[in-house]
Amino acid sequence: MVVMKDVQKHFGPLHVLKDINLTVGKGEVVVVIGPSGSGKSTLCRTINRLETIDEGSITIDGKTLPEEGKALAKLRADVGMVFQSFNLFAHKTILENVTLGPIKVRKLSSAKAKEEGMKLLKRVGVDNQASKYPAQLSGGQQQRVAIARALAMNPKVILFDEPTSALDPEMINEVLDVMVDLAREGMTMVVVTHEMGFARKAANRVVFMADGQIVEEAEPETFFTNPQSSRAKDFLGKILTH
Questions:
Q1: CA 2, CA 123: separation in Å to the nearest integer?
Q2: HSE, side-chain direction, 13 A CA sphere, residue 87
Q3: What is the pLDDT, as a whole number, of residue 32?
């Protein structure tokens, strides 16, 4: 579904992505972990060209990611994105946030979009908040709305960029539970996260990044019990002992 080949990315003199080669199969959940500043979020954001790349190629469902324009917008519509900071439209109701994309981009009728939107809000457990505005919801509820909004476009893949890092601890599980359900339903997902429990429970594969490179990738059980690189051992030693 997603193929990154020899991808390079610089921010000025800083080489943030170095020779990234990654393939994500249809229905696969790939969790990207690693220390801060390792390039995880940048990798995630290049998949729908929120960040451009300097070299290499990225294809989604067999199509090369275009540079810009209508072709990029069309392909981007197939790639859902859930951000750390929710990014909901503050002046629109919860239901309006979810229906905006399908109406504007997918050209769905308002009635059909509302019907589908309510189903999705129910699926993520916030259908009773449909007429409220984002500021009236908790962080966990807002993030679940953001997931519903991504799903409303019927994406082929959803990217999650640290979706729980802005949440209070007691709200994290309500978002992760929705993500685990999506994983079980076969949604293709690339998830940048610090939640090791989610990685163990829902990932088909864990990709460990450090210093802009993919250092190691393996099935969760293998990675967490028997990491191969000293960098991964050091990282896991620090986070799993706390």
A1: 26
A2: 12
A3: 97
Are the CB atoms for 32 and 40 separated by under 8 Å?
A: yes
Q: Report the alpha-carbon distance of residue 179 to residue 114 in Å, rounded.
A: 23
Both structure tokens of 83: 């951000």
Q: Which two tokens stand for residue 157?
A: 């893949």
Q: Which of 17, 23, 59 is nearest to 42 (CA)?
A: 17
Residue linked to tokens 């476009």: 153
Give the Å distances, CA to CA, from 192 to 88, 160, 163.
20, 6, 8
- Closest to 223 (Cα-Cα) out of 59, 34, 1: 34
The DSSP element (H or E) to which 189 belongs, if any, is: strand 189-192
Is residue 98 a contact partner of residue 145, using CB atoms and an 8 Å limit? Answer: yes
Q: What stretches of the chain show up as alpha helix (H) in DSSP?
A: 40-46, 69-76, 94-104, 110-123, 139-151, 169-184, 196-202, 220-225, 230-240
Query: Which residues sit opposite 59 in a β-bridge?
Result: 3, 64
User: 79-119: per-residue pLDDT in tens?
Assistant: 999 998 888 999 999 999 999 999 988 899 999 999 999 99
d(CA 192, CA 96) in angstroms, rounded, equals: 27
3-state secondary structure at position 116: helix
Give the residue ranges of the chain where pLDDT is below 50: none
pLDDT of 111 reads: 95
Q: What is the dihedral sign for C-alpha 6, 9, 10, 14?
A: negative
